[in-house]
Amino acid sequence: MSAADATADTTASGYAASNVSARAWVRAARASGIALPTLQADLRNQQQALDSSLTEAVRTEMPALLEISKSVSSTEGQLRTLCAQLEAHRSSAAEVAEGIGSRLQEFEAAFEERAALHQLSDQIRLLQRLAEALRNLEALLSAAPSPHIRDAAAMGASDASAASAASAALEADALRLLRASSECSRLLLLKRRTAEMPAAQRVANRIDEARLALLGQLCAALEAVMRARVRPLASGDRAAADDAVPDSQARLVGALLWAFGEAEAEAELVQWVRSQWVAPRLVPKLQAAAADPAASLHSLAAVLLAFVEGPEFAPLARADAAAAAAAAAPAAAGGRALVSTSAVQNGGAALPPLAAMAPAHLVCAGPWTEW
Known about the structure:
This protein is mostly helical.
């Protein structure tokens, strides 16, 4: 190979470099002194080699390129179909979400309406129970015996059959009042629970009137039972006073005392005992004792103690003590002690009405102190 050919090959190989500049290559070729025809021939040879190499590469890779083109075309169609399906699904999902949202609002409104209906139903049931308790109480109060029956029972009877009938009348009256007081207790509880309801407010006066009527009948019945078979004793002995109180009378007095408690009328009971029972009987005795020239505070206190332990107060004291003992030791009394509604609301202490307000002797001490 001549020096010119070697130089041309070197120049051509330099042209084949990836980073060659055409202008720089021409300048270098001219500076090397290579003839232009030689460079042209070399470039033609390079072009032919590259053409044949490119043709062979295309011929070899064309089937793979065709397969790729076909697969891309089919995949593009599938992708377009999938995009259309996704768009349709998105539209249907939006419609379903809108429907679910509207149904959710309907459900929430229905649940709110259901809660309001439940509350209204509870209120209606309370009002029905209130009306039922009021009707029952008024019906029991309307069945009160005539006053002359109580007076006859209180005055006593000459024979055993009449005495038995009088005792039965008093007992039937006490049982009726016990049922009435139970209805009154239920009525007062329902009244407090329905205090904010307009329908309950409209019958509030009837409830108060029914309770006042019950208290009046309880006072009348208690007076009749207290007056029944009360006889003076030769001595002020407490044991003799207890013997003078029949068990039936003490039981009826205890039942009526508890009826006062069920009606939440402990204060009214104490007031009646002090003003209507104790004072009319104790004050004349105190006045008579005070009129004695030898009267002293000791003698007046003796009159008070004699009255407390005497037959006129013994039924109250005995019934109240028995109820207090049963409340303090229900197991010893043979079962669970009777607990009134008012007692439960006042801490669950099952105290009889008088003991809940004041000891029995202090009930008597009130009129003595006022006198």
